[in-house]
Amino acid sequence: MNSFLRVLFLTTLVLFISGCGSLVHYKVQEGDTLYSIGWRYGQDANKIAEWNQLKTPYVIHQGQILRIAPLPSSPDAPLFKPLKPDISSAQRQERVATSSPQKPLTKITSGPVSWGWPAGGKLVSTFSVKQIDRKGINIAGKKGEPIRAAALGKVVYSGSGLSSYGNLLIIKHNEHYLSAYAHNDKLLVKEGESVSKGQQVATMGATGSDKVMLHFEVRYKGKPVDPQQHLPKR
User: What are the distances in angstroms from CA 65 to CA 23, 37, 52, 89?
Assistant: First the structure.
């Protein structure tokens, strides 16, 4: 079992033993963005903004307390309690929550998303709604091979604040769809940059994993969905 699966397995076990009460509030750490917080908690960043009366460009600050679960009267609820942030002192110096306001999308907020494969290697793990450690797909490859944006969008997270994902990119494609690219060796784009479909955005690596691979996820309104239902047939 690689380190990514091991951490998620242990987290699931702890939640089962403890009764799995969902967290309601979150204290913003250095390096966080609204989208990385939403990703960690399985929530739509737009919903978190709504619950906290935030307006675009969704500026958040270190130490700020955010509601990350709906009010009791709301039917929405987080999928799972997240892994605790694991940010080294070097990473804290590298990225600060207030340094990069999240810019709203302007030209890609409507219409269907045109998807393409983010890497050309062999598919080694598929999506499963029943297993918490299979929220996306894993694609094998060699260190340094190109990782490409699966669709037109804007980078809303570029960093390593979610330790089990290693060097992680999150790209927003429209008001509902996000994609993520984990375990990268190098990140080639920054938060706020627009990217085109097929553009190289990273190089394949093994950060946060014990093997070289791309972990790729697609989320709809904050919830994981099967990437293969959107990607073209190979």
Answer: 12, 12, 9, 21
Q: What is the DSSP letter of 205?
A: B
Q: Is the backbone peptide bond immediately before 112 cis, with ω within 30 degrees of 0?
A: no
The secondary structure of residue 102, as a DSSP letter, is: -
Yes or no: say if 38 and 45 are a contact pair by the CB < 8 Å rule: yes
Query: Which tokens is 15 given?
Result: 């939640």
Q: Are the C-beta atoms of 60 and 45 separated by less than 8 Å? A: no
Spatial separation of the C-alpha atoms in residues 122 and 135, rounded to whole Å: 18
**69 and 160 share one domain:** no
Number of domains in the chain: 2
Sign of CA pseudo-dihedral 179, 185, 191, 197: negative
Per residue in 203-224, pLDDT (tens digit) is 999 999 999 999 999 999 999 9
Report the predicted TM-score, pTM, of the whole model to 2 decimal places. Answer: 0.73
- Structure confidence by residue, pLDDT tens digits, 161-200: 998 999 999 999 999 999 999 999 999 999 999 999 999 9
- Which residue segment(s) compose the domain that 65 sits in? 3-99
